[in-house]
Amino acid sequence: MVAKQANSPARTDYAHDMSDLDDLIGYNLKRAYMVVQADFREALGQDGLSPRVFSALSLTIQMPNITQSSLARELGIERSGLVAIVDELESRQYLVRTAVPGDRRVQALVPTDAGRKAYADAVATVRAHETRLLSSLTRGERDSLLRMLQKIRRIEAE
C-alpha cells in the first residue's frame, strides 16, 4: 500500500482545505506577521529600516539616553543581538553612543537630528502602510486587534 501512495500523483489543490493550523492562534499570528513584515519592508524600500531597527530607533527617540541593556530589555531581545542594530543606526548617523557618567562600561544611546528626521519620515510611512494593509478592518476591529495584541504582550511582563 505504501508503494501505491508513493506512485500516486502529487496533490496541488489544497487551497481551500481546512488545516489544523487554521485554528491555531500562534500559527495565524505568525502568518499575519509575515504579511505585515513583507509589506513593511516594501513600504520602507530596499534601503529602509528593518522592523527591528525601526523599533530600536523609535525607542531611542522616545527615551533619549537609554542604555543598550535597557533598550534590549524593552525590545525583548538579547543584548548581544542589539549590537548589530545599534551599529547600523550609528553607521546611518541616526544615533551616537555616549558614556554614562560614573560607569564607563555602560553606554547610553542618543538620537541625532538625522535620526529624528529619519524616524519622523519612517513612522509616517509605517502608519500609511498599516492603514492601507488593514483597510478591510473597521476602526473598531483595528482598535480591538491592537488591544488584544497588547494584552498578549503584557503576559510576558507578568
UniProtKB/TrEMBL annotation:
Q: What residues does the HTH marR-type domain cover? A: 22-154
Which Pfam families would you find in this protein's record?
MarR_2
GO MF, any single term? DNA-binding transcription factor activity
Instruction: Name the source's superkingdom.
Output: Bacteria
Q: Which InterPro entries match?
A: HTH_MarR-typ (IPR000835), MarR/SlyA-like (IPR039422), WH-like_DNA-bd_sf (IPR036388), WH_DNA-bd_sf (IPR036390)
Quick one: a GO biological-process term for this protein? response to stress
User: Which Gene3D superfamilies is this protein grouped with?
Assistant: Winged helix-like DNA-binding domain superfamily/Winged helix DNA-binding domain (1.10.10.10)
Q: What is this protein called?
A: MarR family transcriptional regulator
Query: In which organism is this protein found?
Result: Sulfitobacter sediminilitoris
